[in-house]
DNA sequence: GGAGCGAGTGGGAGCGCTCCCATGTCTGTC
DNA sequence: GACAGACATGGGAGCGCTCCCACTCGCTCC
């Protein structure tokens, strides 16, 4: 185990010398060995092994103009509001996929508006080959930053804007929010429930919009008194539930647009002595295990593969970069399926 | 807003030409402008502005051998077990501090033993100037990896091993766990409590060890029936509490080594109809706001500045890198203070 | 048996930057 | 008013790699 003096790492030159070939040939071997005769390949490989050669990344990037790194941009609010099982799972999926492709993950946390400058500078600096970001509000400056910086970007969650004329279509990965909501409401109807209330998320998030659309797909003549708006938090779910019960004490089912709100709603139902699911059936969304399985009764909910979404985001981006190089078009966005998970609350 | 053709970004050469100076002078200005006369500085700055010049990071790294990036290594279990308010806060602190020093954050998530190879290769590859990692178990391969790769590393939480002879002392940032525990127990004693139980964490984590030591500092003749071991999770806290009550129904206070376990304990106390704090006073540790403020009654707990710890880790590392360059010794580890936060549970 | 061809290999330029060193310029000093 | 000395600037090498191009083989084919 030679303890390397820092800064004295062996170069390709050294490998080539040891293997008795030219630097060019050594380079070919290190990069896959195509078009080099077997014995030479072996000799170079052995030299690499003996010298513990590791390519200098900066030198490689300098000439190839590819960094082998991808930025993950995350706005600070998200890291908190989602109280993370959501985000951390997605990040994990991303990390796995990137690792499998020897691509590094550079994390950019946006703390406030002032940070966008820093982000813009970074992305424009050619430090990364692409970026992954999460679903944003309409006025978010990020899309225009990445576009101007020419950095291919894949979004998690359907963005609320669409590409302008002549622009590349926005690439994203999202769950089938609408379909999942449809399934949930349909299931409640199948149980014989007739006054199905809805606790929605903030209307500036497309996932909330899509879930509401799904609800409406089934309950075409929706009674507005059965709809309340929350903010995807436990507290807001409780508030919305109280509001709904005050307005419509006769409701017999609730579909909440995420599990956190469902758990808040459940708390209120219990406080008021309303048995779940006997009198009011309750369905959530997301299937966050730390929430949906922990409530009493456990939540029936719509499951989405969060980690899988992360993987797909990374895969979509990497594939797009690959295609950019080969001149093909970028791949399309992906909608991942959702499934209804039956537990005790409905 | 010139939409740059990718790959046609202006170089220092171009800036120099436009400002009518040499590349060397342009470089000096870009790197702070020391020893360049004012009018030239201005001219170069203007050229930079006009051309929207952004230095090529790879080229710079190639010659300076500094990457301007730091790795944050995190083992997958942590990301879940702590259910993250803890980790995400620390990460946030790190991110802020690094951003303030124009240093990038490369996130390395270790999924399993097989990943250590990848991590080792990455760290040895000179992709980063340093690394930040989190407190580990005795047999963790990471320390030996970073040492062999010659990557300066700062740990979050006191590591359970110490440096061998002749090795650099291990640098870390940790809360004053022992002092915090002392304060908590002392506080309970001040309330007149006499049979103060302890719910501890896993003994292979130094934070758990240190907190137990603090407890023992005050309760010198500890009764072993008053001590139970948990695993820093809600469930394990509940289990430990039940165990303690079975053994010692007469206990009048509990100090739990973290808030999650305290909330588990609280649940059990409530289930058994034991009033808190009247019959049993309860103190937690960490002051995780999502937990400590959300329980009923809210937890009295020992607060540690988690985000601040993250900042300090980054600062320690950056300062160490600076000193390496100037030839000074690396700075010492840091212990951050804890404070007792009084709420209703004790 | 010689021209033609393709595959394998090496030479060398150059990616964009920093930094050493030589050169030039302007002070201050006797 | 000439000379050292400090300071400012430019020229140029070189960081480690990839990739273009030219070259040399060993074959096939007529």
From TrEMBL, chains A, B:
InterPro entries the record matches: HTH_LacI, LacI/GalR-like_sensor, Lambda_DNA-bd_dom_sf, Peripla_BP_I
Taxonomic source organism: Streptomyces clavifer
Keyword list, A-Z: DNA-binding, Transcription, Transcription regulation
Protein name, UniProt field: DNA-binding LacI/PurR family transcriptional regulator
PANTHER family: HTH-TYPE TRANSCRIPTIONAL REGULATOR GALS (PTHR30146:SF109), LACI-RELATED TRANSCRIPTIONAL REPRESSOR (PTHR30146)
Keyword Magnesium assigned: no
An annotated Gene Ontology molecular function: DNA binding
Residue ranges constituting the HTH lacI-type domain according to the UniProt record: 10-64
SMART domains: HTH_LACI (SM00354)
Lineage: Bacteria, Bacillati, Actinomycetota, Actinomycetes, Kitasatosporales
One protein family per Pfam: Peripla_BP_3
């Amino acid at each position: 185990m030679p303890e390397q003096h820092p800064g004295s790492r062996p170069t390709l030159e050294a490998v080539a010398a040891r293997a008795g070939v030219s630097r060019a040939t050594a380079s070919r071997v290190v990069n896959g060995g195509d078009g080099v005769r077997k014995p030479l390949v072996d000799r170079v490989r052995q030299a690499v092994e003996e010298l513990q050669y590791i390519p200098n990344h900066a030198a490689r990037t300098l000439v190839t103009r590819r960094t082998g790194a991808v930025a993950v941009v995350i706005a600070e609010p998200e890291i908190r509001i989602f109280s993370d099982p959501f985000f951390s799972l997605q990040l994990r999926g991303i990390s796995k996929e990137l690792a499998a492709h020897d691509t590094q993950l550079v994390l950019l946390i946006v703390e406030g508006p002032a940070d966008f400058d820093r982000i813009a500078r970074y992305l424009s600096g050619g430090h990364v080959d692409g970026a992954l970001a999460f679903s944003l509000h309409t006025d978010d400056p990020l899309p225009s930053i990445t576009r101007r910086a020419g950095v291919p970007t894949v979004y998690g969650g359907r963005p609320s804007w669409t590409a302008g004329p002549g622009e590349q279509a926005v690439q994203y990965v999202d769950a089938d929010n609408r379909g999942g909501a449809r399934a949930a409401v349909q299931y409640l109807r199948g149980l014989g429930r007739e006054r199905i209330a809805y606790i929605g998320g903030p209307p500036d998030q497309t996932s909330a919009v899509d879930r509401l659309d799904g609800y409406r797909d089934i309950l075409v003549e929706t009674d507005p008194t059965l709809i309340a708006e929350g903010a995807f938090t436990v507290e807001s779910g409780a508030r919305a539930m109280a509001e709904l019960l005050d307005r419509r004490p006769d409701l017999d089912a609730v579909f909440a647009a995420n599990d956190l709100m469902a758990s808040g709603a459940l708390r209120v139902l219990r406080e008021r002595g309303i048995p779940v699911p006997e009198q009011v059936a309750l369905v959530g969304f997301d299937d966050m295990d730390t929430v949906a399985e922990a409530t009493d009764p456990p939540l029936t909910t719509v499951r989405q593969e969060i980690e899988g979404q992360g993987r797909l985001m990374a895969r979509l981006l990497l594939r797009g970069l690959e295609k950019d190089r080969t001149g093909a078009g970028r791949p399309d966005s992906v909608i991942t399926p959702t499934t209804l998970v039956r537990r005790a609350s409905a």
